[in-house]
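Now for my pick.
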Amino acid sequence: MTTDRLLLVEDSDFLGTQLQDALRGYNFAVDVVSAAGEAERHVAQNEVDCVVTNYDLPDETGITLARDLPDSLPVLLLTTTELESIATEALEAGVTDFVHKDNIVGEMNIVANRVSVAVRAGRK
């Protein structure tokens, strides 16, 4: 069984560590960066099966990042923003799925499932 390689883009060190530890518990290999520019460099230099990114990043939004990544790379958007206000733009930019950040660490089974579904769909 191959371990899926995730890139987590989260500017909060605390939440980034919490999410990384939790996702590793679901047998994902997880690298963490804190900004979109770092994410783009990481994707260009490493094999990545899925990007999980915060909506609000220091250098741009997760939606802009999704637009700049390869179309074949699944992107899950973590947000506290109401989905209705960003959904159309996000989907047009290539976002695969959304996860609301309320109690996200307590609901890692949902996040892990969405990542797995996105990775499988991206491989087809």
The mean pLDDT is 90. The chain is about 45% helix and 20% strand. The first helix runs from residue 13 to 24.
